[in-house]
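Worked example 4.2. Below are the chains of a multi-component assembly; read each line carefully before continuing.
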Amino acid sequence: MAKGVRMENIWKIFMPKVIALKNINVDIRPGEFFVILGPSGSGKTTLLRIIAGLEIPTRGRVVIGDQVVVDADKGVFVEPRDRNIGMVFQNWALYPHMTAYDNIAFPLRIKKLPREEIDKRVREVAEALGIAELLDRKPAHMSGGQQQRVAVARALVKQPDVLLLDEPFSNLDARIRVTAREFVKEIQKKLGITTILVTHDQADAFAVGDRVMVLRNGEMQQLGVPEELYGEPANVFIANFIGDPPMNIYKLSIDHPMVKQLGVLEEINEDYKEVYIGIRPDEAVALPLNEEGHLTGTVTIVEYVGSRRYAKLDLGNSISMRTLLECRADHGDKVRIRVYKLHIFAPDGKRIRTLTLVH
Amino acid sequence: MKKLFKYRRTGLIGSPYKILVLNIVAWVIGVLWITPFIGIFMTSIKPFREVVLHGWWTISPFTFTLKNYVDALFNPMFSLSRGILNSFIIAIPSTVIPVTVAALTAYGFARFSLPIKKYLFATILFLMAVPQQMTIIPIFFLSKNLSLLNTYLGLILVHSSWGIPWITFFLRNYFSLLPVELEEAARVDGATDFQVFRKVVLPLAIPGIISASVLQFAWVWNDFFFALMLIFDPDKMVVTQMLPRLKGQYQVDWGLLSSGSVIAMLAPLLVYAFFNKYYMSGFRGWAMKR
Amino acid sequence: MTQLKITPKRISFFIPALILILVFVVYPIIATIILSFNINPIPGVNIVERSPGFENYIKIATDKRFINPKGIETHSFPMGAIIHNVIWIAIHLPLTLIVGILFAVYLQYVRGGSIIRSFIFLGMVIPMIVGGLLILFSFDKDLGVVNLLLKLFGLGFLARTWTIYPDTALFSLILGSVWLWSGFSVTMYSAGLSSLPREVIEAAIVDGADFKTILFKVIIPMLKPVTLTVVAMTILWDLKIFDVVYAATQGGPGGASMVLALLMYEYFARLGDYAMSATVATVLTIIIIPVVIFWIRSVIRGEREV
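Applying the procedure described above to all three chains together yields the following structure tokens:
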């Protein structure tokens, strides 16, 4: 039942001159939970709409299973209704004049399924999503979380080959969001349905995605499992975009003292005048001065994030750094900084390598 | 074919050929729709003899003439040039007065708490829908007793009063969408209600005021019934009122009538063309109540 | 939103409007009602022929120009002004709704659709007197577009000046009024359409609905508030119709296109019977009231939602 989705050389140019997507190539595996992550204006929603058939690519083709659903060069286009996809829109797009039941039944009624069959399937999916008692209500009388479940039910009821989710969590408040993510992920695993989710929120992406693709200005930046994106960011943009609190990134000339202190030089083969050095706040700690470490700095701010403490440190030369704080220290105290992991990027932003420092 | 494919919208409408056909059909209908306008205009710039003999649609013979316009504008009985002037004399004050008066009321409606506001509001809506016929007889005799019958002032007062309900309604909606913080700031700075209205609300509401004015002007210009009932003197008649009198008793003189029609609809058409944005938002506000 | 307390000074915001409306709108309405019962509230109007009471209403009910049983029986015109108004609504209202929604949806997909929309809107811009003359012109035997089209389709033998025959005069005016008034419904529906959330329609596309299903199951139900407005305004317009008839047929031939508003004018101007004239006006208003109430309630409901 689950089908893969293959995108080949997808370009989308909005007249007169906005390039929304630049040569996207992806192969999404059957049953995979695939996430497209990117800031607003990155083209992620356009890509999803192309898969749905709501938008036509300027170039390239999309294959669902083994059916070519659109091929811009050959003029092939399969209508959205013939693609057997389910889609959940950002604002859920429930039909306001219909009850939840009618909303969910809508795709089946269009297929002209027999009454009992429709009823059975609507109740089944409503049961599975825990909205059985909402079926008589209209969207205006439901909470955001409930509306979202109805929208998911409507997308799933026709047993689609592919499920598309366009920012499904962005209209939910923080608390419900966590449950909603778990719920979507659970359903997806239970049904084994190929799912493509678009989001600008990395927490969403990492919570649900088997693999995550990062888009920026219509270009693919990196594609991989969450650990890869976090642990081995492909370029400065990804390094900066992913991780919270964000990575400390410095553009330093090769003879900068910090470069020497961290022992970066030995690791670079080519002749760069400058490099980017990135240190995640979670991969460096501030320790008492008597401990061993790579750098020293002065505490300027101590902040609490959840159960963890971070220190903002002044390293001199107007360089500041955020690290974990694992000693008693306050504003103005000097500390030793021990770095566990170091990300090195070339001047053009591409990753050179990730170093694990040992002591 | 390929190009069409790329420009098509997805989902709702089928193949590129169908879209092409739908476009052509739409334009044919669109042109047919305004054919009466084209016809009346063509008739007005041709000698009526030629129209009778060959029809207004012929390119040859085609003799261009402005005689029909001259005849209509300087008609010895009902001179449309006089009618146009009278229409302006009536329509301009009949726009300024009710917009000014209604703006005050609308502001009151939008901002002041009134115990009977709900009923007043419903009354205003009712007055917007009442037929002119329901008021005209008493107005006729009232005007007569006040010596306002057959005067510009009488008709202006009637039009002004008649315009107040809908303009109040329209501007009330407009005012209640304005950010109240600015008014509050002005109040904190010590402005009186009227100063707040004059210095803060009115400048912010200029687009709404223009919309209301444009629509009221067109409405008064286009009105026929009130003028018909209240003005008798051919020298004071407005242009819409003169027009049917050019028709002729037994034979319709389309030469005269066509040029007259063009003259009479020119002002509202120009207002519509030049103030399109305001006209349409006023129009939607008039009907949609948003 | 916070509302400011009303004070005597603040009441002055309402005074000018109140005076004008009381003198030129509210008082005349009440006086017209009183006049329709033969009581003379207005100095200078003399009514002596009939005693106070419902006499005028009885008289109007038996007036052939108001309602003509013989015409109704034989299905021939004239049938009386009130019947003509009803026929007007019965034909005009459905056509307006259909034209409005179809064009609004259709023109979304047409290149230059907004230009065509403004063509259609022209009927709303011009004076209705000119509108009436344009209808007269369009149905003219030799010059009119209607007959031109008939000839084009080989139906030239049907060509005639439609407005001067009793059996076609009213229908010509009604069709003409569809042409004039469609700008209203097309504009209303277009505005309504553009405010519909795009995603809902897209969701229906993804769900597999075809064009017809989307139109009838999604778009039209969601446009219900617009439809209510258009229905109310169109009925009101049809009942109050005057200028168009006055310019095109004067209610003729032989009363075949007489309508209520024109009948009121006839009583006033031609017959000088002010009380009867006031009676027709009152009847017209009474017919309008249910529509107005329906409309006021929908507006107030809309207010509450905003």
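Take a moment to check your reading of the output against the notes. Chain C touches chain B through 106 residues (CB under 8 Å). The beta strands of chain C are 4-5.
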